[in-house]
Every structure is written in C-alpha cells, then in structure tokens.
Specification:
4 helices
C-alpha cells in the first residue's frame, strides 16, 4: 500500500486481508479436523471420541501458542510445550 493511500483505501485493504486470512484459517481448520478424526477412527477410537479428539488437540495447541506468545517468563514456553507433547502423544498418561 502506498504512503498516499486514503483511509478508505486502507480500510478496504484491511478488510480484504482479514477475509483472506479467515478463508485460509477455515480451510486449515477443516483439513485438520478431518485428518484428526480419520486418524482416531483408523486407530480404534469410537465415533464420539473421534469427533471430539481433533477439537481438543487443536484447542490445546491454540492455548499453548497464545500462552507462549503472551507470557514473558522464560520458562513458560518450555513448560507449555512439554504439556502439549505429553497430551498429544499419550492422552491417558496425562490423566494419571
């Protein structure tokens, strides 16, 4: 965007950028959900668990990303990362 753009042009450009970002995010979320569900079904999960598990995994990853980005403590990212790996690799182990 040029330095001489009007506020209306900048607003329009921002709306287009947000719309494109939303489309990419929706497509990625759909692909991630389908892959996670099929993965769970292939390895023996029942229908309900296979439907919920991708949402839980993506939610954990989103939470970890936000916490890592917002927290300025040096050890926080490492701790959240370890928790995510633990929960994703072996969910029953995390509940022991």
């Amino acid at each position: 965007m040029s330095a001489t753009a009007t506020p209306a042009q900048r607003d329009r450009a921002l709306r287009v950028q947000c719309a494109c970002t939303a489309l990419v995010a929706l497509g990625t979320a759909y692909a991630s959900y389908r892959h996670g569900r099929e993965f769970a079904l292939r390895f023996g999960a029942d229908e309900a668990t296979a439907a919920i598990r991708p949402l839980i995994v993506d939610g954990i990853l989103t939470t970890a990303t936000v916490e890592f980005a917002e927290d300025d403590r040096p050890s926080c990212g490492w701790q959240v990362g370890c928790l995510v790996v633990l929960l994703v690799r072996d969910p029953p182990l995390a509940s022991r």
